[in-house]
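Protein modeling request. Please complete all fields; requests missing the sequence field cannot be processed.
Requester role: graduate student
Desired output: 3D structure, token encoding
Chains: 1
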Amino acid sequence: MPRRPRHWQWTEAACYHVMDRGHNRETVFADDADRAHFLHLVTRYRDRFELRLYSYCLMANHFHLLLQLPEPRRLSALMAGLLRSYTHYAHRRYGFVGRLWQGRFKSPAVETESYLLSCGRYIERNPVEAGLVRLPWDYRWSSCRAYALGEAEALLAPNPWYEALAAAPARRQEGCTNCSTRPAFITRCVECHHSVCGGGRLSGAARPSSYRGSGLEGANYSARSRFIIRCIECHHLPFTPPRV
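Delivered output (244 residues):
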């Protein structure tokens, strides 16, 4: 299936779950110096593009960013600059040539009111699912410590959905730690079995009529959505319904 144009999901009302991984799933962040440099680049491009970063996680061979842009059409320019800058850094440090990233970065749109916190929880639980730590806030290279422990994190923008959980910071942190110890509910593609977070309403604008013939017509969770439930890996339709 041909790639879907990014402008189909441009909207100022949504955030974007941006992710990419190393070519052939190879390591892109070999040590803490690599991860620190990548976050330094994120800070530089945050200031240049006025993006709001709500969640992030850096793994050995991939990364996740949950962000919002005042001009969504600049997302491609932002990521092109960020990934190219880190590639140049890796070329200089490790003395190799050629591609570093697997290919086109993924950037499914996330409905802010419904699934932003769930998507952030999914992102921050990556180290737990990979068996690196027991609790998500034990991992240094994610945004979880800012939300669960109240640690200062200059990279993150104020998160109004997190702040709406409770008036007192201690109550918000308690709620965050309780939620972060439970797995985020997952949708799974029936074609390639790839998992993504947050109810599946992630990719592309569409009318409910797009579900005709897919076995999903009449399903309440999809009929209310403006987004196609489509796999970010193979773009197959449909997803299995989320566990609630």
